[in-house]
Amino acid sequence: MLDFGIKSIKSIPTPDGLREEFPLPKEIFSKVVNPARETIKAIIDGEDTRLLLLVGPCSVHNADEAFEYAKKLSELIPKVKDKIFIAMRVCLDKPRTGRGWTGFFQDPDLNESRNIDKGWREGRKLIIKILSLGIPVSMELLDVDARQNLDDVVSYWWIGARTTTSQRLREIASGLSAPVGFKNPTDGKIDSAVEAIDTARHEASFVAANGKGVRCVYYTCGNKNGHLILRGFDGGPNYSAKDVSDAIKKLANRGLPQKVLIDVSHANSGKDYRKQKDIITEIGTRIASGEKGIAGFLYESYLQEGNQKIPKDIASIKPNVSVTDSCDSFETTEKVILSLREILK
Length: 345
Known about the structure:
Blueprint: H1 15-21, H2 26-45, E1 51-56, H3 63-80, E2 84-89, H4 116-132, E3 137-140, H5 144-150, E4 156-159, H6 167-173, E5 180-183, H7 190-200, E6 205-209, E7 215-219, E8 226-230, H8 241-253, E9 260-263, H9 276-288, E10 294-300, H10 330-344
Parallel strand pairs: 1-2, 1-10, 2-3, 3-4, 4-5, 5-8, 8-9, 9-10
Antiparallel strand pairs: 6-7
Helix pairs in contact: 1-5, 3-4, 3-10, 6-7, 9-10
């Protein structure tokens, strides 16, 4: 049968091949990846009273810059670890509702050359380097390939507002080795995300290539560490005390973990990155005053503030500035996180 819609086909490494080329040292798994998973589970379960903070760029577009950010973050982590547990956002996929740059895995050269082979190799290499600094990694789950290629190196996954309703991703989430957060959809209907959490807790099956590239059926155990992320919606923010309380009641009614994360970007900030620090301060103060149910934050941050469009001449791109959502600078981020620790004390 002819594939009339296919222009060409190029082979890429199998999951085993990718792991063999960029292996995860056993000591890094035992000292960084797995302990972070257990800590995050404990935070979601309320056994660890620290806040979880997933901080980093909206999406990685430059591996060297992302590693520079990680080095700065590694110096900050020890200063706040008594009150805040930090994992770095390392988003190498970029979901789109229309045309646009689809992320490092798909287009690492930012020029529509779609060198996916390079994207996966350089992406996994970057994650191993970040882990070598002692920083656990969190990222968004968009498809089964990310799970097959990276489940050994990721300590936290989340599923976005536009894909929370995906039956396929719920099935994959049920087989993840790490905790997974589900964002509320853009229409603000918490019930859809609650249903996703409940579905992912149960056994399921999905088809994917195994380590050698052979298509198999995976039968899952169910992921008991799914939870809700409030990210705002088309009608505005949803991080108020009432919003959190209402969400927790719905979770309780289904017997689900009664802890939520707050995404301080996106609709919660009205897409104004400068409001992120105010939201974190407000919620941190509420937690210090006794509010229950908030486990932590997702926070978009990079080396320099703001964002930029990808120029046609890639050589003219501004260094250290996001090419997707606007981010706080690291200087601001450090002040916000240190201030949050003082509030929590």
